[in-house]
Design a protein that fits this description.
Radius of gyration: 12 Å
Structural class: mainly alpha
Number of domains: 1
Oligomer: single chain
Number of strands: 3
Order of helices and strands: HHEHHEE
Number of helices: 4
């Protein structure tokens, strides 16, 4: 429940479509940790943008994570969402 509450604040945020595509491509080959995904961005400011975008993509169901196990953190595994899992949060 805490994960859903946390992600809710990111659900309606407007995100750059190009940034969303870059973040989604970062997990195209399989599950990866939040830290591993964000590390692919260049520079500290860009990593912050990637992190906010990643939370947005999880909140809108475009990416998936096990939201029931533990609090989302930098070690949480993120993967591409199955087509039927969109907008589940």
């Amino acid at each position: 429940m805490d994960n859903a509450k946390f992600l809710l604040s990111f659900r309606s945020r407007a995100m750059d479509p190009g940034l969303c595509l870059a973040v989604m491509r970062a997990v195209a080959d399989g599950a990866e940790s939040v830290a591993g995904i964000v590390a692919k961005a260049e520079g500290e400011r860009e990593r912050g943008r990637w992190l906010a975008c990643l939370w947005h993509l999880l909140a809108t169901g475009r990416l998936a994570a096990d939201l029931g196990c533990s609090s989302l953190n930098m070690d949480s595994r993120v993967m591409a969402a199955a087509s039927g899992e969109r907008d589940v949060v």
